[in-house]
């Protein structure tokens, strides 16, 4: 190769690196853990928040993105089943006593279980996960759990239950080399080696997220799982219970004393079981509570949708359990606490990872505060999503401003044109349209259709 050409390649590579390291500043109403800052700024360098406040002194060459919207921490989803989010909404014509009831129905097996198994057998699970991660990003999520162990492409949301796998997007989080997040759907079926492994993860600063007591609020069989979990020695710090619909106030008090957290998924609970967990008891016992959508077939498309549902549910209660700020915390800082990452995720704070969400629109609507805007936003209002300082998704304007030389794919969501970048994924994957086409073809063979990225307000 000619020396001049080699030098040119070196210069171009250096220019690319410098472009990637160019500081970015976002201007809008900034939501910190303590306050809202109208006209505030967030300065980002090397994927990290370098400063937050009013009238910041910006380094030379900083790209300033001005917005009239709300700048919030990226949302953290601790309860999902990503590959199932390709399916349209499933509307059972009955309410169930526990999860074991609906999982045995013929209609579930025909509409959900068999098509999902066929998709896996065809080797399309990574396509399904890719589609689900795009869906999560469009809902303001920057971190997810419920990913596959298959070697799928990474690079959109952080896959928190896969941090120690190749390609995982978390080396900058400063996680302990042994720190792991274990996500288990059927903890009472764990083998003794699996329990030993989970306890080892807990002992190394990790977390264990487990589905438990999922059923109707007064279902005795679901409630009994709490006693069985204690019998297996898993009521311990670092554990968080997902669903917990059948638990009683005494159970939440015991969880609090043991340092056990709670992940609340109200929409899916209501649709499957006709009720949800005793959130009042959880809050009264000071159990750290996060919010998550479960899956889109019976839950919400993502965390923005689940925030809306939780806000509406809260408004129907005789005594409101939380305000808009504390509800937003359940999708950000509380979720980070449950997985021991609140030192780097879940807040807009100096030194934290630049995982950010901008909601387009006025900071205050109908006289409410900007946290109200976040809790009631639709996916069409997402102006920008950044993961580790990388612009991943958003409106055409800010995406083109920040990634002028990058190939951006266009998505049309709820009547709003959006752009998405896959440039952080290894191996230059094919266009997202190809992912959609493969999934549509496979699902059509099973008599199913591909779910839309958003139900757009339904």
Fold and architecture overview:
This protein is of the alpha/beta class and 458 residues long. The protein contains 15 helices and 17 strands. A 9-stranded mixed sheet has the order 3-2-1-4-13-14-15-17-16. Strands 8-9-10-11-12 form a 5-stranded parallel sheet. The chain has a 3-stranded parallel sheet with strand order 5-6-7. Helix 4 crosses helix 15.
Q: Name the poorly predicted regions.
A: 1-20, 164-171
Oligomerization state: single chain
- Apparent shape: globular
Terminal CA distance reads 59 Å
As a percent range, the share of strand residues is 15-25%
Radius of gyration, rounded?
A: 22 Å
* Individual helix count: 15
Number of strand segments: 17
Task: Give the rounded overall mean pLDDT.
Answer: 89
Which structural class is indicated by helix and strand composition? Answer: alpha/beta
Percentage of helical residues? 25-40%
Largest sheet: 9 strands, mixed
Biggest sheet: strand arrangement: 3-2-1-4-13-14-15-17-16
């Amino acid at each position: 190769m000619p020396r001049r050409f080699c030098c040119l390649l070196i210069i171009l590579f250096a220019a690319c690196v410098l472009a990637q390291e160019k500081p970015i500043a976002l201007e809008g109403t900034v939501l910190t853990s303590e306050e809202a800052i109208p006209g505030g700024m967030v300065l980002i360098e090397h994927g990290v928040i370098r400063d937050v406040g009013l009238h910041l002194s910006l380094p030379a060459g900083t790209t300033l993105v001005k917005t009239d919207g709300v700048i919030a921490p990226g949302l953290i989803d601790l309860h999902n089943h990503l590959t199932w989010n390709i399916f349209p909404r499933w509307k059972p014509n009955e309410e169930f006593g526990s999860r074991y009831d609906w999982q045995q129905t013929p209609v579930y097996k025909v509409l959900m279980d068999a098509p999902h198994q066929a998709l896996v057998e065809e080797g399309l699970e990574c396509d399904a996960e890719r589609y689900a991660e795009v869906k999560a990003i469009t809902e303001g999520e920057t971190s997810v759990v419920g990913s596959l162990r298959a070697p799928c492409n990474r690079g959109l949301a952080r896959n928190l239950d896969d941090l120690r796998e190749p390609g995982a997007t978390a080396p900058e989080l400063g996680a302990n080399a042994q720190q792991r997040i274990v996500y288990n759907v059927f903890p009472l079926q764990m083998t003794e080696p699996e329990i030993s492994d989970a306890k080892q993860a807990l002992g190394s600063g990790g977390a264990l997220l487990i589905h438990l007591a999922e059923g109707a609020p007064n279902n005795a069989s679901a409630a009994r799982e709490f006693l069985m979990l204690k019998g297996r020695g898993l009521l311990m710090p670092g554990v968080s219970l997902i669903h917990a619909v059948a638990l009683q106030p005494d159970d939440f008090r015991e969880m609090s004393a043991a340092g056990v957290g709670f992940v609340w998924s109200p929409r899916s609970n209501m649709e499957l079981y006709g009720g949800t967990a005793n959130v009042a008891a959880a809050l009264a016992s000071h159990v750290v509570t996060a919010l998550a959508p479960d899956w889109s077939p019976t839950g919400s498309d993502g965390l923005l949708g689940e925030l809306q549902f939780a806000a509406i549910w809260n408004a129907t209660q005789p005594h409101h359990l939380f305000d808009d700020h504390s509800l937003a915390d359940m999708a950000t800082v509380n979720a980070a606490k449950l997985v021991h990452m609140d030192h780097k995720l879940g807040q807009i704070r100096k030194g934290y990872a630049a995982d950010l969400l901008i909601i387009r629109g006025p900071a205050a609507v109908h006289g409410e505060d900007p946290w109200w805007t976040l809790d009631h936003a639709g996916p069409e209002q997402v102006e920008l999503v950044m993961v580790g300082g990388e612009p991943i998704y958003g409106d055409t304007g800010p995406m083109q401003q920040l990634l002028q030389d990058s190939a951006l794919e266009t998505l049309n969501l709820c009547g709003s044109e959006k752009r998405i970048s896959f440039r952080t994924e290894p191996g230059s994957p094919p266009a997202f349209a190809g992912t959609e086409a493969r999934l549509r073809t496979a699902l059509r063979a099973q008599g199913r259709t591909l779910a839309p990225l958003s139900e757009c307000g339904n």
